[in-house]
Amino acid sequence: xxxxxxxxxxxxxxxxxxxxxxxxxxxxIAVDFHTSISSVIPIIINDxxxxxxxxxxxxxxVPPFSVRQIYKNLAVLSIxxxxxxxxxxxIAALQSSLNTKGNVGVNSLLVSTIFVLFSSIFLTGISxxxxxxxxxIVIGEIAxxxxxxxxxxxIPTLMYITAALCGIVGAPxxxxxxxxxxxxxxxxxxxxxxxxxxxxxxFFGIFFAIFGTSxxxxxxxxxxxxxxxxxPQRVNCGIYFDxxxxxxxxxxxxxxxxxxxxxxxxxxxxxxxxxxxxxxxLDQIRLAKSQPIKQSLKKSVEVLxxxxxxxxxxxxxxxxxxxxxxxxxxxxxxxxxxxFITCLVGIRFIGLxxxxxxxxxxxxxxxxxSLTKYIGRIGCFTIAAILNxxxxxxxxxxxxxxxxIYILFLIAGLWGVAGxxxxxxxxxxxxxxxxxxxxxxxxxxxxxxxxxxLLTYSYASYVTIQVTLFILFGILSVSMxxxxxxxxxxxxxxxxxxxxxx
Length: 502
Prior knowledge:
The protein is mostly helical. The chain is built from 18 helices and 2 strands. A two-stranded parallel ribbon has the order 1-2. Helix 14 (319-344) packs antiparallel against helix 18 (465-501). The longest helix is centred in the C-terminal third of the chain and has 49 residues, at 349-397. The radius of gyration is 23 Å and the shape is globular. The N and C termini lie far apart (61 Å).
């Protein structure tokens, strides 16, 4: 096991501005860790292009890691994150159905989201300076394991405390992960004599290709463990579902203690194995020129203040669609799973149906990444909106019957296709339009996306599905209208710029 400091490796040294841009990007992943590959790579490349003029000097440096060590570290980090988030995504998807008493499950997700925002602004730089990249990740994993363990006995106080810990460590963990991969990728460029952006893109592609399977494995585990746990309500499901009434009439749990112990034990075990892999097989990398805590906090306040300063007025019109990109996902996790799946066919089918959603989402990310070249972002958004409108209408008029489970797969699958567009193309819009002129653009993206998640989790346990569908329909409509205004404004500026050059 090797302990490397960044100042031993000139290839990693970057300006304060670039470090701030990288933190802004990686913090956005903390809020939305299921970000698709197509939405991650372009942003990384933009930051790295600033360093390409140092390529020749970097190639002369002796890399601190051998090629074998580099690929070993990449493999260890990728496998560790798959194990941890297989467990976390699996347990998170069950919160609205597994822990319904007092709405503790959904409320814990709300608490976690609130603290992710706090940590992404105030704790990211401090934690990496103090602990280095490796131990920041390890400490973060401990909090996730504690949250998974708390589900064995979901006492509200314990659930909320561990959820808050997950939120606090979330941003530092994901920022350290992205920074670590950038470092080892750049080390690798000095072995293979290739451009930095090519290797970094390749390494992030490997990581997210492996990591993207975590949702599938997590839901598969829950399906097989809960296969015999099934007490569907079968009445007042779908549009007729009222979460308040459901809590009042609930007399027995769908999952007995034995199944709960087995499920949480498997998930916690996967998290522990992940942590052991990191402790014993991941090499340490520390940042150079660590900043005093007082200076880091001062910069955090400046970042917070910049979130409410708008260099481009049209960014305001991106707020609805940015929030929607998380609202639609939170609806799937917090409301669709409970009102349609658990109520109609039982909790055991949540994992199986969400696997369908995850597979459709993954494939669609690649498809729309290529399709954007031909129909543009507005074309992709239009397709996604049509799919969401269609599914909202279907959910509203469908009379739920337990022998029509294929309808649930259809809704989840097409919702995943639309979700792939929102997750990849909204962040791409911020990157393309504002990355060069507004260094806080991605921070604002993170802020409004988190707001969408907070909004959904705040009403999910109290609002009927009928009202929810109207809310979703309205937010989506406002989002598309506002984005249309942004497109018109951007094209108008381009046309004026073209005329001025004539």
